Amino acid sequence: MSTLRLEVVTPERKVYEQDVDMVVVKGVGGELGILPRHIPLVTPLKIAPVKAKKAGSEEFIAVHGGFMEVRKDKVVILAETAELGSDIDVARAQQAKERAEQRLASKQEEIDHKRAELALQRALTRIQSSGH
Ligand code: ATP
Fold first, then answer.
1. pLDDT score at 107
2. Distance from the CA of 87 to the center of ligand 1, in angstroms?
3. How far apart, in whole angstroms, are the C-alpha atoms of residue 96 and residue 85?
4. Which domains are assigned to the chain?
5. Are strands 14-20 and 4-9 parallel, antiparallel or unpaired?
6. pLDDT tens digits, 99-113
7. Strands 4-9, 74-78: pairing kind
8. Adjacent-strand bridge partners of 49
9. Could you tell which of 81, 86, 88, 97 is best to mutate to test the pocket of ligand 1, judged by most ligand atoms within 8 Å of the CB?
10. What pLDDT is attached to residue 27?
């Protein structure tokens, strides 16, 4: 069976580089499943886990927005931050989730709700990507 190369890159490092059978991402227009020989495509991504499927197993990468470029047999995801599911500090993400939820529940005017909402999405994406 043919495979495609998945690369996840941040300004600091290459987070992931593997040959996989399928990539599933959450684009701004909805979920996309990318198989080898997919048509070329560029899309912004939502803050969400990216799923890499290979040989019957699945890996998750927490990707915090950014863009995906699909070429013939290659998918490149560029994001400001991203972590492998297995590298995620779940307790830290849980604390970030609770902080964001408290901020969103607060009636204080100086709370930046958009910022808290994004922090909550990052924390939830990390928790989901870690398999918890
Ligand atoms: P926190 O409030 O816990 O710092 P955050 O969402 O504000 O979370 P970011 O600004 O998105 O954190 O990330 C800062 C750096 O810390 C990045 O390099 C990111 O990969 C890393 N990071 C953040 N949270 C975690 C986590 N739970 N596990 C592993 N790495 C993390």
1. 80
2. 11
3. 16
4. 4-85 (2.60.15.10), 89-129 (1.20.5.440)
5. antiparallel
6. 999 999 988 878 788
7. parallel
8. 62
9. 81
10. 96
Distances (CA, A) of 116 to 6, 37, 99, 109: 31, 39, 8, 13
Distance 47 CA to ligand 1 centre (A): 13
For residues 112 and 41, is the Cβ–Cβ distance under 8 A? Answer: no
Could you read off the pLDDT of 33-85 as tens digits, one per residue? 999 999 999 999 999 999 999 988 999 999 999 999 999 889 999 999 999 99
119 C-alpha to ligand 1 centroid (Å): 9
Strand partners, 76: 7, 69
Rounded to whole angstroms, the Cα distance separating 18 from 63 reads: 16
Burial class (CB in 10 A: 0-12, 13-18, 19+), 47: buried
| 132 pLDDT above the threshold of 80 | no
- The average pLDDT across 93-102 equals 97
Q: Taking the alpha carbons of 55, 58, 63, 66 in that order, is the dihedral positive or negative?
A: positive
* pTM tops 0.85: yes
Q: Do 59 and 84 form a contact (C-beta atoms < 8 A)? A: yes
